[in-house]
Design brief:
Blueprint lengths: L1 E6 L5 E4 L1 H11 L4 E6 L5 E7 L4 H13 L13 H10 L2 E7 L2 E2 L5 E7 L5 E10 L4
Antiparallel strand pairs: 1-8, 2-7, 3-5, 3-8, 4-7, 5-6
The structure holds zinc ion.
Zinc ion binds next to loops.
Length: 134
């Protein structure tokens, strides 16, 4: 298992971690296989979406906040119930194919760490599984 840290600077933020993940794939020397990315946090998540136009990330965060307001009559009294719900909707892991030593992503796709209760220092875990050669 490999890992790296992500430092968010705002309460809600999408951070492009594609290069951090690719660096671990490079270090593994795995050319064909699967890269499993896991976020071990209950108020953060991971997703893939467009990285070319940064307004896509802003729209995603804005719409999630429309759907899940920060201040409602939640039972969880820590003040971050919205962040827990967003984390579950977006999800805590991704599995990406590795081909020719590269993460397989579409032209406009990037891997985003999703912070919903920052700023914090977070950990991202990465398990790189080589394909069977038989
Ligand atoms: Zn909480």
């Amino acid at each position: 298992m490999r890992n790296f840290t992500v430092k968010s600077s705002q309460r809600e933020q999408l951070l492009d971690i594609s290069h951090d993940v690719q660096r671990l794939v490079d270090e593994s020397n795995v050319k064909e296989g699967i890269c499993l990315i896991f976020v071990p946090h209950t108020t953060a998540a991971i997703t893939i979406n467009e990285g070319a136009d940064s307004s896509v990330a802003v729209d995603l965060l804005d719409k999630l906040s429309d759907l899940i307001p920060r201040n409602q009559d939640y039972k969880h009294l820590e003040g971050n119930a919205d962040a827990h719900i967003k984390a579950t909707l977006v999800g805590s892991s991704l599995a990406l194919p590795i081909s020719n030593g590269k993460l397989t992503l579409g032209t406009w796709q990037r891997v985003f760490f999703c912070e919903f209760d920052g700023p914090r220092v977070r950990t991202v875990l990465v398990q790189i599984l080589p394909a069977s050669t038989t």
